[in-house]
Amino acid sequence: MDATTAITGFVALYIFMLAAFTGYEIIGRVPAILHTPLMSGSNFVHGIVVVGAIWALLNAATPLEQTIGFIGVLLGAGNAAGGYVVTDRMLDMFKSSDRQD
Amino acid sequence: MVSFLIAAAFFVATLLFIYGLKRMASPVTAPSGIRVAGWGMVIAVAAAFLYAFDVRPAASEHLGTNFLLALVALGIGVAWAWRSGKRVEMTGMPQMVALYNGMGGGAAAAIAAVELYSGNAQAYGFVVTVLALVGGLIGAVALSGSIVAWAKLDGRLNRTLRFNAQQLVNGGLLALAALFALYVLIVGAGAVPTTAITLFFIAALVLGVLLTTPIGGADMPVVISLYNAFTGLAVAFEGFVLQNPAMIIAGTVVGSAGTLLTFLMAKAMNRSVSNVIFSNFGEEDDGSGGIEGSMKSVDASDAAISMYYGSKVIIVPGYGLAVAQAQHKLYEFVKLLQKQGVEVAFAIHPVAGRMPGHMNVLLAEAGIPYDIIHDLEDINEEFALSDAALVIGANDVVNPAARTNESSPIYGMPILNVDYAQQAFVVKRGQGRGYSGVENELFFADNTHMVYGDAQKVMVEMIEAVKSLGNG
């Protein structure tokens, strides 16, 4: 839990606010033709949840926690890997149309 | 030292995520964008195993088992998702995105569950417990809701389950979940109320199912996008619980981006997000009463020849084109027209396909260059100037009732003005209605001709017709 400096109170709120604006700005500029790959790409990015699931599983102390942690890592890994493959395949198709933007 | 390494790795990973997402903003840099973000993920996951050096005292005796379990879970999850992701057809993309997204929501809910069952969240105080509960609720709703969305889009669940006072039941479930959450909060750092936590998660999962089942297939893109934003938020909240900045930032970025995308999509259909979720689309009167006239059909070859001698043709592709796998044949036909000097453009409705931009992906798959593919706003004026419009497998997005018939359920949705073209050819499998179940006036118009048949077969006939002209 304290591998990094604690993020609490207003620091947490600042991070939340800045990240929210970052997300808004990134999507706002994307052309409609990329909306599907981008939804899939952002789907991949929240696959970072697998990292938290790994932490939870490593810190599990009872069979119940171990079971839930195991499921969490399984699901998180599926989110990350699946999101990556699907996005990569979609974007590959844009590469094949050999025009400049 | 270890904690510094972990923190540094997460910093780099977060940087790569944001940089990668930014590169996805342009078709030229997008393929490298996902790779950049992918490396970020690899670094973050590798660093996560360094947590093993710093586990809670209670877990230290299980460390070996847990480490092994984590590796196995990671291996199975990655292997399964990698294979299924490689195999899925491009037309099946939306449901796979829904499924992977649901898994992310489930992982966030699992983290919340572990932290609540172990009493760790409660030990860190009120705020952390609230965040764990809210993240758990949203994650669980995203999990069960996404699975229903996947089942619907995949054709495994065709029924739209609706019953009276559904919103009342949903509200009741939410209140019930809130009640259990409140109980967990009141007990706080005392004895862990295992039953209440379990009931809390069950209520959330059932809520996700009941929220999603009444929503019709045509509205699914909005729902998938919404659940994508949900999962992002859930990940961010659990990130606060675990004090993991990479999860907080990545989750929040996705949460806000997904929310904006959801509203953009709903706007494209001229509906509010709450209208999508709480109204029963596709159930009301189909508004077909006043349509006069009859449908006229024409042979594929005649339609092809008439386009061949035109000077400007606009093609409106729909999901039916993709289902018939006719994109490649269509492009072959387009190239023949272009060789003859016909100006060809593609008009894409924002909700063509099953997700926004889905049709662009399907056309890109066939190698159609994206500089002849246009959005609704860019091309709608040009229909009046075109000799012919060719509609393939699209229906609701070209229905003039959206402009004229106030009683129609799709009234107010922006449509492609195919009816303004000199003439329109509509390739369609049969006389059935569109996804929304609404009758289409365009098909009855004087200058519209129907070309019945499977899109792929029709395109082959069109190609042959034009080729025989070239030879003769």
From TrEMBL, chain A:
Originating organism: Halovibrio salipaludis
Keyword Oxidoreductase applies: no
Lineage: Bacteria, Pseudomonadati, Pseudomonadota, Gammaproteobacteria, Oceanospirillales
EC number(s) per entry: 7.1.1.1
A single Gene Ontology CC term: plasma membrane
Pfam families: PNTB_4TM
Catalyzed chemical reaction(s): NAD(+) + NADPH + H(+)(in) = NADH + NADP(+) + H(+)(out)
UniProt-annotated location(s): Cell inner membrane
This protein's name: proton-translocating NAD(P)(+) transhydrogenase
InterPro entries xrefs: NADP_transhyd_a_C
MF GO annotations: NADP binding; proton-translocating NAD(P)+ transhydrogenase activity
